[in-house]
């Protein structure tokens, strides 16, 4: 009886061993296949991004900015010559358009952080930009949509269709161009992994090359497109801008297989509101002595970004206090609190760069108008006044490669910083140069006006403006690139588009402030400062104005602003990151 039983047991044990071996084999095979799939996906993701993907962004930036920069530098003449605006109205219309464009970059940043990936956001707003350019072309083509000339007095566009065409084109242009800028920079920066030392260097280089592609496209636009607009027909210039921008969007869309596309996440506004809401709700609770007792998700496998604690704005720490009767899932993590702290710390830096952008706005308005009444000849060649801004673009095209290949490697050896110098140091250099450019602009205006009074038929050469344009171009090279890199690197991962839009928000406020200054200075100087009881920059004739005083006012204001910037830059605490997983990339 025992032998058959033992035989059966032996067979059962053998069968169980075979079954277990089979299960182990299947499990091991599944693990191997899963690992291979992960490696394949990882390899596929590693093959994406980098400078190969960035080439599509550089090409797009050059093509789109051919029309954008050409139009922003020349439309003040379009408003004067075609729309029959006076000088202050034309300047304010352009600065308000540019200010609205940069302000609306926040919309693009919000959409790309919350609803769409960055590529789709750019393409969506690109459609609006193309529609705006098309409407602008149609209005410029038909004289029935232009106001009649009325003796140099500013006149509004009349007629339902004319008004609709003008404002619809400007609104679409501002919304489209602004939305594109709110997502494009971050789309490019996402192609580089900040945790990889080599790619971190590549990220710093990316911002320089993006600026270079922008100014190279702008240089072509300011010469070729502006020449067509001012010497042939304005509608041909707008039409070329439309075609070139459309080609840029086709190129960008073609780069989709090469891009690392980060999936959108939770709304930045909701995350900010949650922290502030919990801080207010817990306002009566005492702050803990040690930040370690504040709530943080310690799960190593969590995909959420972890940011190191800072002791600034401690009131917000109350949002992360664990209350006995509360749920940990309901309160905020320390990293979420630090996200809001980072944005608050950025605000003074943002505010300190507004005056510089107010100075830059003058080079697209009053300086273009100065050039229009100067000697525009270079030998036998007549240069359009609106093409004079090509000077800072050419300076930038030369100096950016020198900065990247000469200065940055030298500075890296000394500072061991991937960018050579910190972003805030770079911004500070630009602010100083901006103040100098306004001082020089005032001196050049005095020379221009004095020569006109001596011999109105023999004005000075337009190339005297190259001094202020050149210095301003170098200032932009330092400040704008430094701001883009600063707001991207310092931003929480879930708010990078919105944060990078702060650069354009500074530009926006600078342009709007320019309009305010023009009206305010005219109102004040008309009553108290000018012997003629006429504002410094009032009317249609610059020769009767005191534009040089306005330039020097901005120079003094820039010097005071630089002192303010030094305080906030030294106060700022850079983001302290902890080790956390890479962003969630999708195809």
**Beta strand %:** under 5%
Q: Largest sheet, described in full?
A: 2 strands, antiparallel
Q: State the shape.
A: globular
The number of E-state strands comes to 4
Low-confidence stretches: 1-43, 577-587
**Helix vs. strand class:** mainly alpha
Estimate percent helicity: 55-70%
Average pLDDT confidence is: 80
Radius of gyration: 29 Å
H/E element order: HHHHHHHHEHHHHEEHHHHHE
If you had to describe this structure to a student in words, what would you say it looks like?
- A two-stranded antiparallel ribbon has the order 1-4. Strands 2-3 form a two-stranded antiparallel sheet.
- It has 587 residues and is mainly α.
- The chain is built from 17 helices and 4 strands.
- Strand 2 and strand 3 (381-382) form a beta hairpin.
- The chain is 70% helix and 1% strand.
SSE layout and pairing:
Blueprint: H1 2-47, H2 50-81, H3 87-103, H4 105-114, H5 118-141, H6 160-189, H7 197-232, H8 234-254, E1 261-262, H9 268-281, H10 334-352, H11 354-363, H12 366-372, E2 377-378, E3 381-382, H13 390-415, H14 423-454, H15 466-490, H16 496-529, H17 547-571, E4 585-586
Antiparallel strand pairs: 1-4, 2-3
Helix pairs in contact: 2-3, 2-6, 2-7, 2-8, 3-6, 3-16, 4-5, 4-6, 4-16, 5-6, 5-8, 6-16, 7-8, 7-13, 7-15, 9-10, 11-16, 11-17, 13-15, 14-15, 14-17, 15-16
